[in-house]
Amino acid sequence: MSESPAPLIRRGGRGDVPFLRDMVRHAFYWRWGTPEGEHVPASRYVEGWGRRGDGSVVALESGLRVGAAWFRLFPEAAPGYGFVDESTPELAIGVVPSRRGRGYGQALLEGLLEHARVEGHTAMSLSVERANPALHLYERFGFRPVGEAGDTLTMHADLGSTPEPRLRGEGQDGM
Q: What is the C-alpha separation between 57 and 74, in angstroms, rounded?
């Protein structure tokens, strides 16, 4: 039995924005049929993409986009679910359901954390439901709970303490 090739991860660019919009649904509604949250619209994670503090990576399989991870700085007046402060970007990861469980989430997280370091970020935050299998992935990368609301954790990681990632490619726009 042969091993699957390592996922190709490249930096996202402006041409990936429609794909990021699609991935928001996979990131936030990881369980089929989960309704949109009342407090923070998921569109907030990609609206007006390309502002200071936005960064993304995209996973490719046979040249097709199958997942994305991105970070964004939020103002205190309009925070994301995993908001910690205005200088800590919040991350999100989405993988198309048919490609989950193949290592794309880990590869995307590695690439995104490297991208954030290159951009000068020293920490990252996120929001995850306790039942989401990705919780264990985040813990392996040094994310620790700093808050909770119901079944959802806000997690934070110091980027200096996470494993050394590998970014394999870069998009044309270098975003």
A: 19
107 touches 6 (CB < 8 A): yes
3-state SS class at 11:
strand
Domain ranges of the chain: 8-121
Q: Each residue of 30-84: pLDDT tens digit? A: 544 444 445 557 788 999 999 999 999 999 999 999 999 999 999 999 999 999 9
43, 24 contact by CB (below 8 A) = yes
d(CA 11, CA 25) in angstroms, rounded, equals 20
CATH topology of domain 8-121: Aminopeptidase (3.40.630)
* Of residues 49, 14, 28, 23, the one with CA closest to residue 132: 28
Biggest alpha carbon–alpha carbon distance for the chain:
53
Residue 54 — φ and ψ, nearest 5°? -95, 140
Q: Are 152 and 128 in contact (CB under 8 A)?
A: yes
3-state helix, strand, coil in the chain (%, to 5): 25, 25, 45
**Which DSSP state fits 96?**
-
